[in-house]
């Protein structure tokens, strides 16, 4: 949609569109309340500034809106379309890489209590596996921060896809 259309959506419609970009209710409300935006650049800047202020509960809420990378059945059934594109090239990966992604994602979840978050757009399954291997032994606090940073990148990508001008 065009920015002018987004600016003129009802509050409920704007909230729904924003929550599709970042599954954090408080963030979406705050961004919706800042309308109208003069440009996509301003929208992205303001959204990023608000995301920087998110607390752990808000970050974890945003994480809950994602499929586990490597969980192919969940990706196919729950997050077809947009998520499939955002998951990079995971659907074209070889079975051994997918199995290792699944195994490490399970270990990551058990260690941290939330899924591994990465902006996977354009990344191969092997690249995502390498990133997961590099981060799996980090502290939970470090991973909340790493995941929040990645969520910010995902949100920017989704906002750019939402607004066409």
TrEMBL record:
InterPro entries on file: OHCU_decarboxylase, OHCU_decarboxylase-2, OHCU_decarboxylase_sf
Ribonucleoprotein is among the record's keywords: no
EC number: 4.1.1.97
Entries under Pfam families matching the protein: OHCU_decarbox
Oxo-4-hydroxy-4-carboxy-5-ureidoimidazoline decarboxylase domain sequence ranges: 7-160
Reaction(s) the record says it catalyses: 5-hydroxy-2-oxo-4-ureido-2,5-dihydro-1H-imidazole-5-carboxylate + H(+) = (S)-allantoin + CO2
Keyword tags: Decarboxylase, Lyase, Purine metabolism
Pathway: Purine metabolism; urate degradation; (S)-allantoin from urate: step 3/3
Keyword Lyase: yes
Sample GO molecular function, one term: 2-oxo-4-hydroxy-4-carboxy-5-ureidoimidazoline decarboxylase activity
Enzyme class: lyase
PANTHER family: 2-OXO-4-HYDROXY-4-CARBOXY-5-UREIDOIMIDAZOLINE DECARBOXYLASE-RELATED (PTHR43466:SF1)
Xref: NCBIfam families: PRK13798.1, UraD_2
Name assigned to this protein: 2-oxo-4-hydroxy-4-carboxy-5-ureidoimidazoline decarboxylase
